[in-house]
Amino acid sequence: MLGKKLTIIGGSGGMGKIFGKFFKSHGFEITLFARNEDRLKQIAEELEVNYELDLKKSVEYADIVMVSIPIQSTPKMIKTIAPFLKENSLIFDICSLKSETYKALYEVHEKYPINCLSLHPMFGPAIKNMKNYVLLALKVGGTEQYNEILSEFLRIFEISGLIITETTHKLHDLKIALTLGVPHMFNILFLNLLRRTNESLSELTKYTGTTFLLQKVFAESIIQREMEMFGDIQIENNEFHKVLDLFENLIKEYRNVIKNKDTKGFYKIFTEGLEYSKEDYHFNDSYKYFFQFMKTLKKKLK
């Protein structure tokens, strides 16, 4: 049922490369398409796969088309290539926001005899293998063979050890606001707050305890990644705007507690955070994990 010709739009990017390697290992015939010709040829040669410089030619014979380009460009690309796709083919994206992308996929699946799916891999291009990572899946719709094609396609990820979580576009963007937008925001603000004190991180490290050191290293690892994606996840996600309002109110509350030396207020905020975290299955072992990370980090610093 599932054909073996697979095209990756945005194949010269980090995620395009990792998925090109992944699908090739599962016996697919891979074609990469990208705007940067030099980079495209380089990645195609590295992976030993085909590449195509003409967009229409890259997708018209494909059984599966993956769209791996910036969030804001994804809906337009879906609408552009949909008329070129052959009957019963499968198109899917891997972008980090789903509201507009889902609309574009739903629109083209209503108009053309194709199958549409939206995925969000909860990992970046630096991973070595996909085992035990989460893959979010949003079913959109398609032809009479949709369920069979999707079942066969998703099975490829399952046998590779990925954890597939089905969701909806509205729920997806809310969860991503919390699981990506919030930690990204905290780490960006953490570094910028320290910067505004005019203290260097190297100097502060001489005074560091375990908490600061771990937070600093984590923030530094975050800030080196794609600024455009981080910005889109926060700026383009209406659900994150709502979270930001909550955060602003919380900061005001916390400021008042500290400025007024309100011990009871501090205890309330602290205790509420503690009680909330006790519901999590990582809670009991969290201190152990913390010192495992520190042990590894201390070895590197010697």
Structural commentary:
This protein is an alpha/beta fold and 302 residues long. It folds into two domains: 5-167, 3-Layer(aba) Sandwich (Rossmann fold); 171-301. Helix content is 57%, strand content 13%. It contains 13 helices and eight strands. The protein has an eight-stranded mixed beta sheet, sandwiched between helices. It is elongated, with a radius of gyration of 22 Å.
The value of Rg in angstroms is 22 Å
In order across it, which strands form the biggest sheet? 3-2-1-4-5-6-7-8
The backbone outline, from C-alpha atoms, is elongated
CATH class of the largest domain: Alpha Beta
Q: What is the N-to-C succession of helices and strands?
A: EHEHEHEHEHEEHEHHHHHHH
CATH architecture of the largest domain, please?
A: 3-Layer(aba) Sandwich
Alpha-beta content class: alpha/beta
Write down the CATH topology of the largest domain: Rossmann fold
Domain count: the total is 2
Number of strands: 8
Give the number of helices.
13
Low-pLDDT stretches: none
Features:
13 helices, 57% helix, 2 domains, 13% strand, Rossmann fold, 302 residues, alpha/beta, elongated
Short description:
The chain is an alpha/beta fold and 302 residues long. The protein is built from 13 helices and 8 strands. The radius of gyration is 22 Å and the shape is elongated.
